[in-house]
Amino acid sequence: MYACYKESYPPTAVNHCLTCNFYSSDRLNLLTAGPTCVRVYDIIKNQDIENEDTHSQDDQQHPELEYLASFSFYGKIYGMESVRLRHHDRDSLFICFADAKLSLVEYDLENNALKTLSLHTFEDDELKDGFSHNFAIPIIRVDPDNRCAAMVVSNAHLAILPIRRQGPAEQQIQSDPKNTNSKYPLMSSYVIDARELGNEKVSRIIDIRFLEGYYEPTILILCETLRTWSGRVAVRQDTCSILAVSLNTNDKVHPIIWSLNNLPFDCLSAIAVPKPIGGVLVFAANSLLHLNQSKPPYAESLNSITDESTTFPMRIQEVILSLDCAHATFINNNQLVVGLKNGDLVVLSLITDAMYNVKSFHFRKAVNSVITSSICTIGSELIFLGSRLANSLLVRYEKTSEELVETYDDNISVNVDEIQDTDEPKSKKLRTDEEIEDEELEKLYKAHTSCTAKESYLRSYTFEVCDRILHIGPCASVAIGQLSTFVQEDPEVEVVMCSGHDKNGALSVLNKGIKPQVVASYDIPGCVDMWTVKDIRLNDENDGDTSIENTHKFLIISRDNLTMILRTGQEITEVEQHGFLTQTKTVFAGNLDSSNCIIQVTPYEVILVSKGEQIQQLELGNESPIIACSLQDPYISLLSEGGNIMMLVFELNDNDEKQVKLVNTTSLNHSRVTACCLFRDCNGRMSVSDSTSPHTTSPTNESIELMEDEKLTIDDDDLLYLDINETNTQSNDVPITSKLYRCNSAQKVSYWLFLCLDNGKLEVYSVPSYDKVYNVNSFALAPLILATTSIDQDNSSNNDSARSAGNLPHVNEILVVGMGYQQGKILIVAHIDQDILIYEAFPSTTCVNNALNLKFRKVPHEIQLTDTRTPARGSMGLTTLGSGSLLRYFQNVANYSGIFICGAFPHWLLMTTRGELCIHSMAIDGYIKCFAPFNIANCPNGFLYFNNGGDLRICVLDLRFTYDCPWPVLKIPLRNTLHFITHHFITKTYVIVSSTMSVCGKMPHITTEDKEFIPVEKGDRFIHAHVEKFRLQLITSETWEIIPDAEIEMTEWEHVTCLKSVNLKSEETVSGLKEFIAVGTTNVCGEEVACRGRIILFDVIEVVPEPGKPLTKNKIKTYYDKEQKGPVTAITCVEGFLVTSIGQKIYIWEFRDNKDLIGMAFIDTLIYIHSLVSIRNFILAADVQKSISLFRFQVKYRTLSLVSRDRHHLEIFSTNFYVNQNQLGFVVSDGNQNVSLFHHSALAPESHSGQFLVRRAEIQVGSNANAFFRTRAKVFNQRQIENKHITWFGTLDGSIGLLLPVDEKEYRRLFSLQAKLSVHLEQNAGLNQKAFRTFRSHQKFLQNPMRNVLDGDLLKRYFHLGFAERRDLAKQIMSTPEQIINDLTKLELSTI
Predict the structure, then answer these.
(1) Nearest CA-CA partner of 154 in 169, 171, 172, 139
(2) Other CB atoms within 10 Å distance of the CB of residue 431
(3) Residue 32 — φ and ψ, nearest 5°?
(4) Spatial distance between the Cα atoms of 787 and 785, rounded to a whole number of angstroms
(5) Which residues contact 714 (CB under 8 A, 6 or more apart)?
(6) 1237-1260: per-residue pLDDT in tens?
(7) What is the mean pLDDT of the segment spanning 539-568?
(8) Closest CA to 482 of 1098, 1061, 1266
(9) What whole-number distance in Å separates Cα of residue 123 and Cα of residue 120?
(10) Tens digit of pLDDT for each residue in 375-410?
């Protein structure tokens, strides 16, 4: 039993975020970290066209996020921090992984990738203090002056990583050529045991922070000396303390310079306060403290809970709140933005006196936002709110007003008014040396306090959401619905997921691929290709309607030897004239002169049409026919069948008449051309380097040593009075002013011609000079990086390349486009044999004279053109895929621009201003011959395509969906917590269970009869607990609106624990089964009150809707609603009977006469059954701690018996079935983020004659899988009949994964490939793929790991390799590239 795991939708949760100069030295980047990936964003200002007339230029632009890169890791990310290393003008990144791994990485400008600088691991058994698992979450912090980094590796250990700084001693060491340690950015790391630092015993490190303003790195440790919790506050409280430790990394001496004990027990985190205030803010759940070494501590109580939980002296804060789960960031020296656990953003101001002593805290609620998991400041006007429970937001804040708080008297020891400088002294008498010294001290004090205002002001801010990152998690429940389409008989599947929490709760509707809405369909057989063209003049004169601009006026359809011209408008009609040639086939048609003219290219002629009349017919005089054309107004490139290039240019002749003219292109035809493309650069990224232009290089070693020598001449006395930041600044750090927004100045438009030659080369020429500016020798071999070579090397290698041209793959087509924000991202999309290659441009650090300053890196994707591949005659084993243009560039299709790839498995390549390339399949109508955008009044911003059956489809995209994500997503906000969802197949409605939070002011009282509640009287400053109020509602799948008057309100303290659509026996239907919705509830009134629950059975019926309310056609009809003797925790159906888990028993019920439930059988279980799934007469039960059990219900004997169970302890999250032909398995996800596959095998020795389930496969997925669902695997070969199910699962991090059954023969071959790839490919941050995917558990199992699950995310990187690397790896495992690609393609196409 084998399977393949794949992450189909990457995680969207943001756990950590920070800003730094990661990509460049003058641009701030935003870095976000999910569970296993880091994403890099840039900040851009996008033009707001709607406010163009009423606002200034600054108001028209609003900040947005632009995606730059994403880096995946084989490890769970627990934290990241930026650091500026020696001799670096950009920031590097510390990333810590589970359990205690640390990697130092930076962005590689040369290869546009991530480069690993240093690796560290602190997972020794000695540091675990006897535990088998490291339960402490690693915390990474970096010194503000970039002198060292510290990491919490266990409950009481700190790992110190000194950062190398060049000094006199190291200069002598570097003079030794045998010494190689000096080139590493970090010195040797070491571990400190925090329990050995002071007298107090450190039991647990809560948080660490580096303090500012110290000569040596000083770290503050917030720790807990004695363990306690809320239930023991009466006997043990104030158990936290802080230790400020000075780190002498050279001598490894760490004295404690400051400590404070008896802090509140609920201290959660600390944040360093910048100068001039200094110190640290300690966040506790119910209080806030400011601590500083040289100043008295100050604390405020935020609610009345501190009256009984701490004896630390505190003032009373007027605002009542809790800082539990709060995250904060400074927006200036004395103000923070704090995100609370209820989603409120609060501005916290530190009110100080003239000596910077904190006198009070001021809280002001700013806005209600998302529940944050991390927060960071971007520049001086932006903050980023990262969230695991909702969309992450980019927020702009702006100061609105200032309010005077308090004025302090000048009753200090030195009167500032009396020491002001004057031209002459007030007294003429001689002053003693002591008086002169006192006056100098007074002047020094004045210089320090002159910039300090005696009045404290409270600044108010307004917050505006500028951009958001879509998040579809956490996945609480998943339902599958049917999506009916016009072009397919079998209904498609739509996935509806419960996302968010509380006011951020929403329904996320996802489609696997694009499902277009068909407006009309026509049968036009014999089509080969088609184009849509505009004619602005024809629009103005003939239609007389100028309100609709940029509409297409003609649809040109090319057949084998004919051309059909269709006039578009209110109706699509065929026309005979309008100046086009119709008695020959058309190679290309497009627009010139800003859509005022139409050009038609035939095999031997070029036609120019304007206002519906032919204005020029140019005979090309070519011997071989034209087979391809590329147009960028005003230039046209033509490619003949013989491999020759012809260039045309559109211009006005001497009589001011429009014409196209042939251009002499002798220099372009030195070799046979296989593909060509014209590109128009609008933002100046395609620039040619000049030999006379200066090159920007890093500072030389001589200048660096000179600066260091100057720094070392500072007198020791000066170090006592100068600012520590001035003396400790690293010599390599040149002052840099980082800009927040990208400034795009006006650039000259340039044109470029890309040519692919038959010898495998890629050449780029400037137009109209036709100078060669770029040359890649091995483009046809699909290298990872495309870099130019010099012209001399190109000429010397022409002969060798020509001799090997017969063995190279054939470049069928190439397309170069600019996409993203202001078309700033240049993509090369090439069709080479049976592969689609995508390259993205990035700046080159190595300049070649008279060449483009660009490189291109291959973009990974999974686009497949065929389901099977056969080797060709060439040595590379590849063949071409017929003829015809597959790559179609489009603009403004549903406000999206990109590339459509035609073929048997069509795909969309989309990119918005966000800058992330999104690839969506469209396997809904089979083979697609051709594609064209189509914009008319009846079909705005739509598109056309021809399928293999000769049907012309006129389609539009559903504008409700967002396509700028891995799957098309429609997110419906409901503003409450969604717990369960199920689909009612008859009425096509969804049943959802949601809850809202309300304040609880009473407690249940133990009585023998009815429930009694006692009011809780705790005062006005007490924060009461919140309870959930549940209700059940219906939502329609047509408009995704809540159906009014169709809901069930649950009673107070009643929780819905399960919801499912069940088929029960009924005499009302012919099949004998009827669909019902079953609900199980539990009354949660505390541990002292006995639990009771309810079973509710109802149906969704159709009635006559109320006038003006079409949604009221569906109502809820309740058939059964009775209380049970215990809590109903899980529910399902088997063989027409209802199965429930009540307490510690599983019951089988018969729903008789649609009135009552009659008990049929029961069985005792283990602890707590929270999930039941069934297939045929088998029931799979998941226990909260005792793993899974398999039961069988025999209808004939009415008995429920235990078949087998897992003997190990597992904390089960969810479970489902695994179906592979005639094999049945059981998929389980646990609390350690593993997905395991069990099998019942009575013949296996380890099953003990079938008593225990056998674990067959397992894999670590890196996220908690919380909801499973199954779909049938797609089969494109009609001769194969396979009964395979794909088991999908949604996770708490917003990702969607799958398990796909794999045959043993395919598994053996791909497993060998996986082993080679794990060694051959470079892994980010130096992590081990095999170790990460291994099953993890806190317990030691007496068995070896049962892998048997392929890592699909690693295997798909085989497509990303070059053709030569594919062949070499396939040869190592005794296979062929075609065989491996066929196996991988089969797995990929099964999930489309």
Answers:
(1) 139
(2) 12
(3) -120, 145
(4) 6
(5) 722, 727
(6) 999 998 888 899 899 999 999 999
(7) 75
(8) 1061
(9) 10
(10) 999 988 999 999 999 999 999 999 888 777 654 443
CA distance 37 to 35: 6
Integer Cα distance of 495 and 510 in angstroms = 5
Report the C-alpha gap between 1082 and 1074 in whole angstroms. 26
**Tokens at residue 357, please?**
């002593």
Residue 1100 to residue 1116: CA distance in whole angstroms: 5
**Is residue 474 pLDDT above 60, yes or no?**
yes
Q: Which of 774, 795, 900, 781 is nearest to 841 (CA)?
A: 774
pLDDT in tens, 1276-1296: 766 666 789 999 999 999 999
Three-state SS string over 127-144 comes to: HHCCCCCCCCCCEEEECC
In this prediction, residues 482-511 reach a mean pLDDT of 84
Closest CA to 333 of 212, 442, 236: 212
pLDDT at 745: 52
Q: For all residues of the chain together, what is the average pLDDT?
A: 85
Write the DSSP string, 255-301.
Answer: -EEEEEEEE-TTEEEEEEPPTTT-SEEEEESSEEEEEETTEEEEEEE
Tokens of 626: 């034209």
List the beta strands (DSSP E) in 500-562: 506-511, 517-523, 529-533, 554-558
| The two structure tokens encoding residue 361 | 């805290």
CA distance to 928, 1140, 1187, 1251, 1254, per residue, from 1206 (Å)? 49, 21, 6, 9, 8
Amino acid letter, 40: V
496: alpha, beta or left? (left if phi > 0; alpha if psi -120 to 50): beta
Q: CA–CA separation, 511 vs 1271, rounded Å?
A: 13
| pTM (predicted TM-score) | 0.90
- What is the gyration radius of the CA atoms in the chain, in angstroms? 35
What pairing do the DSSP bridges indicate for beta strands 942-947 and 478-483?
Answer: unpaired
**Which pLDDT tens digit goes with each residue over 417-448?**
332 333 333 333 444 555 555 555 454 444 44
Would you say 757 and 672 are in contact if contact means Cβ atoms under 8 Å apart? yes
Phi first, then psi, for residue 879 (nearest 5°) are: -130, 165
Percent of the chain topping pLDDT 70 = 85
Q: What is the pLDDT of residue 595?
A: 85
Answer whether 1165's CB lies under 8 Å from 1172's CB: no
C-alpha distance from residue 104 to each of 30, 119, 123, 186 (Å):
18, 7, 17, 9
CA atoms within 13 A on the CB side of 1167: 11
Q: Helix 1363-1372 and helix 1377-1389: axis angle, to 10°?
A: 100
